[in-house]
């Protein structure tokens, strides 16, 4: 029941926000000081034009936009605020730009440091297993 409810909430968020990942955790320091490692970001993907340096940054800020006049398609270059160079080394081999389909959304809100639980469980899997075991034992013992 809990898993089904969580899945329904996630799918509803996907429909409302237009993003495949409406909630994400910042995993590195690349966007500091705007966003810190462990912050949870809420993403929204609208059909608005993509522009450089919005007031609320995405996980990595858009620094260049090239719009093709004939098709209206947009090529995008991104960079982490705390990084010296652009993100081209992070893109696929021989890829120099992102397109709209690569964008997951704009950050429209965040919860500072709440995502640390996810980071800790990913970096130290034993904690995840202990937590799952404790929750399992609680579920078993609560039926008595």
TrEMBL record:
InterPro entries: LexA/Signal_pep-like_sf, Peptidase_S26B
The keyword Lyase is assigned to this record: no
Subcellular location: Membrane
UniProt EC number: 3.4.21.89
Signal peptide: 1-18
Alphabetized CDD domains for the sequence: Peptidase_S24_S26 (cd06462)
Biological process (GO), any one: signal peptide processing
Keywords for the protein's UniProt record, in alphabetical order: Membrane, Signal, Transmembrane, Transmembrane helix
Catalytic activity: Cleavage of hydrophobic, N-terminal signal or leader sequences from secreted and periplasmic proteins
GO molecular function, one term: signal peptidase activity
Group of enzyme by EC: hydrolase
A cellular-component GO term for this protein: signal peptidase complex
PANTHER family registered for this protein in UniProt: SIGNAL PEPTIDASE COMPLEX CATALYTIC SUBUNIT SEC11, SIGNAL PEPTIDASE I
Record family assignment: Belongs to the peptidase S26B family.
The name this protein goes by in its record: signal peptidase I
Provenance organism: Sesamum calycinum
